[in-house]
UniProtKB/TrEMBL annotation:
Catalytic machinery residues: 52 (nucleophile)
Pathway note: Porphyrin-containing compound metabolism; protoporphyrin-IX biosynthesis; 5-aminolevulinate from L-glutamyl-tRNA(Glu): step 1/2
Entry protein name: Glutamyl-tRNA reductase
Subunit text: Homodimer.
Protein residues bound to substrate: 51-54, 104, 109-111, 115
Region annotation Disordered: where it falls in the sequence: 409-445
Amino acid sequence: MKETGAICGVSVAHSRATVDEIEAAGGDGVRATVSDLLARDGVEEAFALQTCNRSEAFIVTDKTVDGAVALESFAPEVRSGAIRRLDHEESLEHLMRVASGLESLVLGEDQIIGQLREAYEESKSAGGVGPVLKDAVTKALHVGERARNETSINEGVVSLGSAAVRLAASEIDLTDGSAVVIGAGEMGMLAARSLDDTPVSEIVVANRTVPNAEFVAGEVETPADAVPLADLPAVLPDADLVITATGSPDPVIDPAHVADADRLVCIDIAQPRDVDPAAGDRDGVTLYDIDALEDVTRRTRESRQEEAARVEAIIDEELDRILRAYKRKRADDAISAMYAGADRVKAREVDRALSRLEAHGDLNAAQRETVEDLADALVGQLLAAPTRSLRDAAGEDDWETIRTALRLFDPDFDAPPERPGSGAEAGPAGASGAPPDSVTEELDD
């Protein structure tokens, strides 16, 4: 009987890390990260979340120390001060905060919900999601939905795309300007829609897949064209603003692309970076990355603090609920192991007793039933008090008592050798491995 696994987590996010550090921690994507984590000793489940603002991993192990060791080498190229390590309870709370938008660069933003769902599906496809992480992530998604349905945490909130447009408007006059959006994903769509509310006269959407760019261009009222990435050298020299948000592993804009730029503002909200940092050294080019959006998003954060407090109350409520369920499960694991071990011994000893009694004459059904009922009653009465103690131990976070019970009553341990002449071997036939109804009812009273 295995103990219910505990979660360990590690986070490299915008609150502590730079864009380069988040990118370095991202590895080769969610599936590759999950596969790598599952190959480490003691890891039974794994989940990874990678966005432009964060790169995080969560694993489940039977022993907390195994989880800490397995995550030691996560983000080896990132300085220790940029890495936050999380225990079981901290991981659960952190996932809820992430889903609610409390940990986002833009407080309360909605995009993280979709990103969390996508990461869950990818981790699941890689074989990383088991019962513990399933409960943790689905609970986080539930909390994220509650936060947006029951509070105004996302009311009037800016996305990274709109924050980029706001930053650009503070730097240059967008009136009759030309803007280029590179990337036709969710961030690109949000940026294009934000630009639609500005006085730009033209929007160009560039994407590797042109039909996707055409879809984004069709979502705005401002005159918009769709072009492939190969057309960027021809498009960029005439642009006043570039917002780039692709999923490309390599830069899509290099210094040569902006060599002829006169007055160009580039805002790179991609992770990994879409714009080679050297492009920002060109005369006439001003380059901003996600770190530069901090001041823009800070003002939104300040206006959302009251709603954030309401979201935190929801998180406290839901965290308490899932921790109680987790503690009950940990106790139930130990209790089930205890009853399974007792049932095995009971079955063996009842068979011995019946064999010896039958050596002195046949037993009828009523006599056999009396012996079996006696054994059941003894097991139930002897284990009632330990059952209460284990449930109390779970409620008090006394995991050492629970671990000791699991070791003492593990039904997978080899049974003691039979004594000569003790009769046929007996197994836990009919044993359920769970407390009898009468004991359960007594404990519930």
